[in-house]
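User: I'm new to structure prediction. If I give you an amino acid sequence, what do you actually give back? Let's try with this one:
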Amino acid sequence: MMPPSHKADPVAARYDGVAMSLHWIVAALVIFVGALGLSFELIPRAIRPFWINMHTCVGLVMFGFILLRVLWRLGHPVPPPNPGWSRPVVLLSDATHILLYTLMLALPVVGIVAYVWHGRVFDFGLFKLAFGVASQKGIYGPAEEIHELLAYALMGLVGLHVAAALWHHFIARDGIFARILPIRE
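Assistant: Good question. You get back a string of structure tokens that encode the predicted 3D arrangement of the chain. For your 185 residues, that looks like this:
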């Protein structure tokens, strides 16, 4: 446990409501889209196209929220790091968050390439969006592999992010995790 002089004030150093909302919306969407993507092989072939389309459409919504989150963060800096943190810890935290954002932005872009060059049509229920691109395995095959690798990298990094948040909350008790919680402790 960190000495009391190193504890952050969880109330003074909180994210704003928009940042908190975007964080938790994106987190829920990443979990949903990721779980759905991992389950494709378990879904019967006859109904798999529906679920692939669902994965893609929700992934596009997720991409929109990620873009909003990036734009919001550019105009609204994060609360300062815990004053007791060393420079390497701050740099590691910053690098982790930059990598999270990079993966969250890259994944949908590569996924869209895979989807479109697979010759698929976006079916949004009320309307469909077709790009008229013929299926080209030379493009969609590698794009799907890259998408999958990026997804596993994101899942691993999210796992580390969650572990770090829980460590801050239960072990360090430094108020860092409470800064993103919509409910004050």
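You can read the tokens as a compact description of the fold. Here is one thing that stands out. Residues 1-6 have pLDDT under 50 and may be disordered.
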